Amino acid sequence: MSSSRQKQDKGRLRLGVNIDHVATVRNARGGAYPDPLRAALLAEKAGADGITAHLREDRRHITDTDIDALMAQLTVPLNFEMAATAEMQAIALRHRPHAVCIVPEKREERTTEGGLEVAREENRIAHFIAPLRDAGCRVSIFIAADEAQIRSAARIGAPVVELHTGAYCDAHAEGRFDARDAELERLRVMSALAHSLGLEVHAGHGLTYDTVTPIAQFPEVRELNIGHFLIGESIFVGLPAAIAEMRRFMDAARG
Ligand code: PXP
User: Fold this and answer.
1) How far apart, in whole angstroms, are the C-alpha atoms of residue 95 and residue 233?
2) Distance from C-alpha of 55 to C-alpha of 85, rounded to nearest angstrom
3) What pLDDT is recorded for position 113?
4) Which residue in the list 195, 205, 223, 233 is annotated as catalytic?
5) CATH number of the domain residue 15 falls in
6) Hey, is 56 helix, strand or coil?
7) Residue 178 — φ and ψ, nearest 5°?
8) DSSP string spanning 10-26?
9) Stated pTM of the model
């Protein structure tokens, strides 16, 4: 990234665009089209501050070859999402992406359903992230907005936490507005707690134009990672327009 762009980005809410579901569409036919790299380069041009890709154990969307291509050609940072397994750690250490986000992974889930259980596995996760940090990767831990998880993440020396916004977004989509507001309040309080403990705060999962504003208004949040909605919306308006509109909501929320 150019130093002028880095300067301009200081303090601005960053948007990481997750391109997993371009690969989902490609893999539905087993061919090479549409190409996630092409989407990533287009997203980059449209103002994405980073590209996020999740290499799942079962390779259901992003593949090893996609990661090779992203690492070779992106000019914005790659946020490499992965489970805390030896295989993924070896891949991350080989590539040394700008950022690594540790997520829980279950084969039977449709998407990343909950946050990582770092509180119960503090020792294992601490040992797992140490070599990634030593390799220069900015490690983030994807967790629920829960005090015990946040305190654990701080104790093990994770520099970043990404708070799972899925429960908030689901409650909104299902019209359970009391539950939505309670989730939002929990996210607000936990963002502040994480920040007070010295953690950089990111957020993501399930965000749309309808749900992004209150999250973008939390002053502690530095980055949002958004995928499924943007890729879906791009069917109707194109990826650059979908990203520009999301950027507009984020900037308006920040005032
Ligand atoms: N952040 C993390 C850690 C994720 O696992 C995902 C989904 O892969 C996202 C953000 C993006 O979620 P969505 O695709 O629902 O916008």
Assistant:
1) 31
2) 12
3) 73
4) 205
5) 3.20.20.70
6) coil
7) -65, -45
8) TTSPEEEEE-HHHHHHH
9) 0.94
Q: In the chain, what is the straight-line distance between the N-terminal and C-terminal CA atoms, in Å?
A: 25
Helices (H), 156-227: 166-173, 177-196, 212-216
Task: Give, in order, the Cα–Cα distances in Å from 169 to each of 81, 127, 164, 189, 234.
Answer: 21, 33, 10, 17, 20
Count of the separate structural domains present in the chain: 1
Residues with CB under 6 A from ligand 1: 18, 20, 54, 81, 101, 103, 111-112, 142, 162, 204-207, 225-229
Is 54 known to be catalytic? yes
Instruction: At 41, list the tokens.
Output: 């380069």
101: enclosing H helix or E strand: strand 99-102
Q: Is 32 helix (H, G, I), strand (E, B) or coil?
A: coil
Compute the distance from residue 106 Cα to the ligand 1 centre, in Å: 14
What pLDDT digit, counting tens, does each position of 13-26 carry? 999 999 999 999 99
The residue segments making up the domain with residue 147 are 3-254
Which is it for strands 160-164 and 138-143: parallel, antiparallel or unpaired? Answer: parallel
Write out the two tokens for 39.
């989407």
- 228 tagged catalytic: no
Please name which of 121, 23, 38, 25 lies closest in space to residue 81, comparing C-alpha atoms: 23
DSSP 145: S
Q: Which two tokens stand for residue 158?
A: 């994770």
Question: For the chain, which ranges sit under pLDDT 50?
Answer: 1-8
What pLDDT was estimated at residue 138?
98
